[in-house]
Amino acid sequence: MDWLINAGSTGHKFVLMFVAILLFVVVMGAILLAVDRPKRVPGWVVAAAFLGPTVIGLGFGLVYPGLRTVWGSLLDSKGKDYVGLENYVRVFSEDQFQTVLRNTLMWVILVPLLATLIGLVYAVLVDRTRFEYLAKTLIFLPMAISMVGAGIIWKFVYEFRPDQPGVNQIGILNQLLVWLGLPPQQFLLSEPANTLFLIAVMIWIQTGFAMTVLSAAIKAIPDDIVEAARLDGLHGTKMFRFITVPSIRPALVVVVTTIAMGTLKVFDIVRTMTGGNFGTSVVANEFYVQSFRIRDLGLGAALAVILFVLVIPLVIYNVRQLRIAEEIR
Amino acid sequence: MTAAIPSTALVDSDAPAKGRTGRLGRMDQRAGIARARLARPWTSLLAVVLAILWTIPTFGLLLTSFRPRSEIRTSGWWTFLQNPETTLDNYTEVLFGSGTQFSTFFVNSVVITIPAVVIPISLALLAAYAFAWIDFKGRNILFVAVFALQVVPIQVTLIPLLTQYVQWGLSGSFWTIWLSHSIFALPLAIFLLHNFMKDIPKSLVEAARVDGAGHVTIFFRVLLPLLTPAIASFAIFQFLWVWNDLLVALTFAGGSPDVAPLTVRVAELAGTRGAQWHVLSAGAFIAMIVPLVVFLMLQRFFVRGLLAGSVKG
Prior knowledge:
Number of strands of chain B: 0
Number of helices of chain B: 16
Shape of chain A: globular
Strand content of chain B: under 5%
CATH class of the largest domain in chain B: Mainly Alpha
Radius of gyration of chain A: 26 Å
CATH superfamily of the largest domain in chain A: MetI-like
Radius of gyration of chain B: 26 Å
Oligomer: heterodimer
CATH topology of the largest domain in chain A: MetI-like fold
Low-confidence stretches of chain B: 1-24
């Protein structure tokens, strides 16, 4: 049994991986083989064979834990005694969490708006140019990088060396300041601006997403509309404002809400770059700190539930807009 | 597309008057306009500035990862040309050095990722098939329920799941990570694959049924081959999600070199050895190389999968 659970060597790990996949294939294969007799097996049995593992998995891994967490948010830090809404009261009244909520608000407002704006402008700028493919690849590349990797890349951009003779800056941003004759800054330590520097990283990642979706939407604008507008004398910024933007409005809304959802749950960037210190924590990071570091289970659960509640309206709005966008297409 | 051809031909006076050529002529014309617009210096300048701005951070760290340790500490990467010295020492140290051992964590990442991509896709395919082609009572309600589960952020599930795994004696093993990733992926995977399943003509499935094929045969023989592009798109999305994930791995694997993936190790290094850029830069790129290669090779599928899966959380 222990052999199946703990693997130390590389070979053992790969064997274990194949065992897992094989186990899965054999079990599913057996179930499917048993029901593959047309007419003799009633429909609901077939449905149960196809859906059973999924339903059990979702019940075990999403529904039950979700309900447990909602209940857990009403319990004390050990997860034993019922304390009512006290955890929520703490989150919304204590100073330390005020900072967390304020930061989260800043993230959720700034990232979607700026990423979408930059992505849109860029998509329009490179649309139908000779170097479009390359230009898009460059902006889109950060999406392939993990947020941990992005955090490291930007931490290096912000790297600070003390301002002394003989000490060279190794972070490009501080070097720029030095070239301009300004003193180098501790970008990640000085509140409250440091949150803005973390937000820049998320914008850097998400702009590629916005640009790709919006570029597809721009290309889908019917030629005759563009042509008619052009004959009416619309050019440049006016074309952008009166034709492009209104035509892709549904796509814009989907992009903004999608990025907002991702931003709400941002955790990796904050953890990698500042660990949530120096007043940079956000709800998703604070959830981790409270649950796993401080071990205040009630508070951690409350933060998770708050995250949940904040996401719901975004998802509903997003799905509805997605429907509209699809109908138009 | 086809509907646009006649109207194009009517409006377009200077292009050849018929069908396809008219449309092509129009495309050229629009490209010409775009080019003219971009020829205006400040717009193209803005595009170039943005492209450089977006590339410089990654490029700087990549260059740094190949510079000798002493150079990294005393000068910026932009001085590289003054002293163009490169080395692979950083990578060797990070991969095999006793303090970092990235090779071990790389193996862990691979071992975690493959089952966490294969299992949820297989399950989701079966479930999507059932929702699309098998009649049973309560089908619609169940589908809506699965669809709605996309809303649940994984943070909500972590503590109860961890408690359960500890009770089962599974904590700190690959099984917990495989299981968790598989479950978290299901709602979105089912939703997306169901959308593709629905688009397959009913007559195709009916014909197979008349020939005496059961659901399992239909699934494997008729539907699976048609769904390959959709599967590829979602597989790439799920691969990136698992490979780049930090939260799930951190929760269930901790920092153990037996299980933890690269992301966990890199994040840990950023905390404990934050000033040692020769280790951090090389480590970060070892963690990034696989997704980057996949991205550059399969960009088309990648973009589609990413766009389709962007609601996941």
